[in-house]
Amino acid sequence: MTPEREERSVQQQQVIEILREYIAREVLDGKDIGLEASTPLLEWGVLNSFEITRLISFMTGRFGVTVPSNKAVGTHFQDLRSLSSLIIDLTQQRPR
Amino acid sequence: MLLRDLVIESARRTPDAIAVCGPDTTLSYAQLDTLAERFGAALAARGVEAGDRVGLWLEKSARGVAMMQACLRLGAAYVPLDPQSAAARVATIIEDCEIAVVVTTSSRTRILAERTPTVSCVCIDDRSLLALGSALGSALGSAPPARSLCRAERAEDDLAYILYTSGSTGRPKGVCISERNAMSFVGWAARALEASASDRLANHAPFHFDLSVLDLYVAFAVGASVSLVPEGMSYMPSNLVDFIRNEKITIWYSVPSALIMMMESGGLLDARELALRAVLFAGEPFPIEFLRRLRCSRPSLRLFNLYGPTETNVCTYFEVHEISEDRARPVPIGKACSGDEVWAVQPDGRRCSTGEQGELMVAGPTVMLGYWGQPPQGARPYATGDIVRLEPDGNYLYVGRTDHMVKIRGHRVELGEIEARLQQHEEVREVAVVPCGAGMRTRLVAVLVSGSGEPIPLLSIKRHCAEGLARYMIVDDVVHVDALPRTGNGKVDRIALAREIDGTASRGVDLS
């Protein structure tokens, strides 16, 4: 694994943990239901449209990213892994 | 006039006017007309005939709208399928109404092939179909398309489309809407809104939700344009408000939940340079404090509360003018429209008089043909299951339900359908589903008796729901009990359950 990929992998794990903690606290009323990085969040109804709206707002506040509407689609919200990839990509695109 | 004639007539009058702006493409009336004919020919080549049902399992798109038109021109009925639904639920619907052909994407074709190997699929992203849309050219000076392939004989009572709703018996029900049903409502709505070719309607609701019928067909009836809200934008209130501004939307129709999100997080109340002149809402009561704020901040807006189950399209309406400071209840659902007659009955069948509550009945041209596979509705009035009160001014006020149907962010949910699905879970012995909370924060809680006595993980329950139910019907939480509380006659005591669950579900307490 290249150093860049390794760094991204560590970053991704950190983002996943933050998202997992947010969903457990805000969406699941503090319950740890064993969400994994690949648990289907939309398909299994963990996130609904109302919760996605709140989550996007959380992502903006916590990670400083603005999610463009063409990215607020199912493929980027399907699980914690794809969500974390979206956040990292948006972070890297942010003007420095 | 039939639904399919609306686009044809508008294409004749104003061929270059924009008919539909989608995330995929923008089509003028002439282009929509031509594409509908070409898609119709392609469907006919796949064996679709008058009287068939065609499933549309697609994300919202202008090409999807052209497909609907293609079906109508062939004399076939279209069945919009929730693009977010699991393949198992889609397969149930395909089987139920014996769909001949499903128009979908190539990735979904593969998923569907595993569930319903016999159904024929047409891929909307197939190269040959994409080519049909690539050479539409400018409509200026072009001749209307040849219609010989796609003008099946059609009557007002023919089936136009089927919308599936939640069914209390555990299977979704197909509501069959005829040309007359739809046209009665569309004609009324166009007149009530004073819609014209200069209007731009937004389409926020998905196509399998009956609110979308007004957006599409009122636009087509008057030669206006309709802009389809892309899927992802529904989650982003500020982008929705930008959409209204940038697309110069004049008429917006959605469930109140979407409007409230735009008010709370999208800046709708303070937004400048909006062309919006009318806002329509339906599907659930609009909390009065939010509606009052909308009314006060935008006094020139026309505000309409539309009411009607899928089975009757829109059968009553109330135009909201002023809202008094002391009003605490939601605004009324109003009086009959679309040529319908509505009245309320007491349990003994007697009509309610002023001040009395009873079940709302609907008769008239918008009442569905019937449920697919069941005896026709005929001239019988439709019993809505909604309890209303007749107010002194002749308006009806929504009070509640006679049964266990609830609304989740505007979606109709029969608790019995969820319970029937959960009962099939191998570890569930008994189950009742209870709604908790109110408005946008309504949550569905499954109260379970586990067969083994061990708690069943929430994710296991969610997964089981997801494999057979629409996404908005997946339960949010589970509570385990030793036994469900029962009334004296052995029925599940839902009042006792709701009382207990209201506090415990959100705290995650095990009642065992």
How would you concisely characterize the structure shown here?
The complex is a heterodimer of chains A (96) and B (512). By secondary structure, chain A is an all-alpha fold. Chain A is 60% helix and 0% strand.
Give the radius of gyration of chain B.
23 Å
Distance from first to last alpha carbon of chain A? 27 Å
Greatest chain-chain interface? Answer: A-B, 28 and 33 residues
Would you count the extended β strands of chain A for me? 0
Instruction: Report the β-strand fraction of chain A as a percent range.
Output: under 5%
Indicate the proportion of strand residues of chain B. Answer: 15-25%
Structure description:
The complex is a heterodimer of chains A (96) and B (512). Chain A has 96 residues and is mainly alpha-helical. Helix content of chain A is 60%, strand content 0%. Chain A contains four helices and no strands. In chain A, helix 1 (3-27) packs across helix 4. The mean pLDDT of chain A is 87. With 512 residues, chain B is an alpha/beta fold. Helix content of chain B is 31%, strand content 24%. Chain B has helices at residues 3-13, 29-45, 62-74, 87-96, 106-115, 127-134, 179-193, 211-222, 237-246, 256-265, 288-297, 415-423, 458-466, 494-507; strands at 18-21, 26-28, 53-57, 77-80, 101-104, 120-123, 159-165, 173-178, 200-203, 225-228, 251-254, 278-281, 302-307, 316-320, 335-336, 341-345, 357-363, 370-371, 382-390, 396-401, 405-408, 411-414, 428-436, 443-450, 477-480. In chain B, the strands form seven sheets. In chain B, strands 11-12-13-14-15 form a five-stranded mixed β-sheet, with helices on both faces. A four-stranded mixed β-sheet of chain B has the order 2-1-10-9. Mean pLDDT of chain B is 90; it is low at 505-512. The A-B interface holds A 28-31, 33-35, 39-40, 42-46, 48-50, 52-53, 56-57, 67, 69-74 and B 84, 86, 230-237, 239, 257, 261, 265, 409, 440-441, 457-459, 462-463, 465-466, 471-472, 474-477, 506-508.
